[in-house]
Amino acid sequence: MRTKADYSRTLKEIETLMDTAPKSQMGERLDVDKESDLEAKKSPDIQALLIDDYAKVTEILRGISRRSHRKDIFVSGSAHDFDPMGRYRIEGLSQDIGREIIRNGYNLISGFGLGIGGAVIVGAMKELYADNEGDFRERSTLRPFPQEPPRGMSREVFWSWYREDMIANAEFVVFLCGNKIDPKTGETVLADGVMEEFEKTKRLGKYPIPVGATGHAARRIWDEVNASPEKFFPGGGVKRHIRTLGSADSTDRAIIEAVFAIVKRVVSK
Fold first, then answer.
1. Mapping DSSP to helix (H, G, I), strand (E, B) and coil, where does residue 27 land?
2. CATH of 4-17+72-267, one of 2.40.70, 2.60.40, 3.90.980, 3.40.50
3. 190, 177, 188, 212: which is closest to 76 by C-alpha?
4. What pTM does this model have?
5. Structural domain boundaries of the chain?
6. CB 207 within 8 A of CB 232
7. pLDDT per residue over 212-258, tens digit each?
8. Closest Cα to residue 246, out of 235, 258, 234, 236?
C-alpha cells in the first residue's frame, strides 16, 4: 500500500530537482491588429493570414491548437493496487515513460496521479537535467488537483473542468493502471477519474494510448481501443503496437517502444 510517507518522498525528490531548474524566459508577444501593420511588423518568424470569411476563424484556430499541442503528452493514471505488474515494475515503467517523453523531444503534462504521476515526473526531470541544458518549466505542465474548488462550484464539477483543460492542451493521452480505494468499502475499484479522462479524450479528438498490461482502468480502455483501433487512429498502422501494450508478455522496453511508435506514426502524418 502506498503511504503518505511514500508520497512525501516523491514530492521531496521532485522539489529537489525543481530547485535546479533555470528560470523560464517569456517570449515577447506581437499583436497585429490592422492589415496596414503587416508590412511594418513583418518578421521571418511570423506569418500573417488574411481571411475574407469570419466563419473560418474557428476552423483555423482549431488547426493551430492541434499543431501547437502536437508534441504534448498527458499521462493519466493512478495506482493504489500495483497488480498485475507489481509496484517496482510500475514505478520503473512510469519513470521510463517520463524519461522517453523528454528524450524524444515531446512535452509532459501531468495531473500528479497517485502512484503514477510522481514517478513519471521524476523520470522526465532526470532526463532533462542529465546534460544541464534543459528547462523543465518549458517542457512540462504539472497540475496537481486542487482540493478546494472555487466558491460556488462543487469539487466534482471543478475537477471535471480541470481534467478537460489538461487534456485539451495535449495531443496524446497515455493511460497507466487507474485504480483507487473506495472509501465506503475499502476495496480497490477502477478510478472513475481516469475513465472520465478517457471519455474526454474521445470527445476532444485526442489520441488514447492505453497500456492495458498495467491492468485496471487502463485495461478497460485498452479493450475498447484494441477492438476498433481505426476509430481512434484513422491513419492506421498502429494495430501491432496496440496489441503489444495489452500483452502480459511484453517487456517494459517493448511497451515503451510501442507507445512512441504510435506517437511518431501520428506526428509524422
1. coil
2. 3.40.50
3. 177
4. 0.79
5. 4-17+72-267
6. yes
7. 999 999 999 999 999 999 999 999 999 999 999 999 999 999 999 99
8. 258
